[in-house]
Amino acid sequence: MSDVLQQLAEILEQRKLESANESYVASLYAKGLDHILKKIGEEATETVIAAKDGDKAKIVYETADLWFHCMVMLADQGLGPEHVINELQRRFGLSGLQEKAQRTVTE
Questions:
Q1: Chain center to CA of 23
Q2: Mean pLDDT of the chain, nearest integer
Q3: Is residue 33 within 8 Å of residue 73, measured between CB atoms?
Q4: Contact 33/22 with Cβ under 8 angstroms?
Q5: What is the mean pLDDT of residues 13-36?
Q6: Alpha-carbon gap, residue 65 to 42, rounded angstroms
Q7: What is the model's pLDDT at position 85?
Q8: CA-to-CA separations, 62 to 8, 45, 67, in angstroms, rounded
Q9: How far apart are CA 69 and CA 43, in angstroms?
Q10: CA geometry: angle at 86 spanning 84 and 6, to 5°?
Q11: Based on CB atoms within 10 Å of each CB, which residue in 20, 23, 29, 46 is the most buried?
């Protein structure tokens, strides 16, 4: 499963070198972080609406859009899916309450 995320991460890196006129992802990078974050907000809202509607196919579709745009944001920030996966792995064996207690005050 994570192979797909790694393949996508590689493509997103390649898109940094392409023209904004020829690539949707390159156009997101060209518009900057605020635009990328706006897209994540839009996709998150669409995901919530799909879940409220209970349409499983639409939930999957919108979640894929949300994950995609989160991956663009990660790449824009010099991060990849492995950073998120490592964090999720770190949390295994911790209860949600334990994990929350370990967070710093600034988070």
A1: 18
A2: 92
A3: yes
A4: no
A5: 97
A6: 10
A7: 93
A8: 17, 9, 9
A9: 8
A10: 60
A11: 29
Query: What average pLDDT does range 8-36 have in this prediction?
Result: 97
Task: Name residue, tokens 């990078």.
Answer: 29
Query: Amino acid identity, residue 37?
Result: L
8 Å CB contact between 62 and 52: no
Mind listing the pLDDT tens digit for each residue in 43-78? 999 999 999 999 999 999 999 999 999 999 999 999
Q: What is the DSSP string of the chain?
A: -HHHHHHHHHHHHHHTTS-TTT-HHHHHHHH-HHHHHHHHHHHHHHHHHHHHHT-HHHHHHHHHHHHHHHHHHHHHTT--HHHHHHHHHHHTT--HHHHHHHS-TT-
What's the pLDDT score for residue 92? 86
Residue at token pair 């994540």 = 40
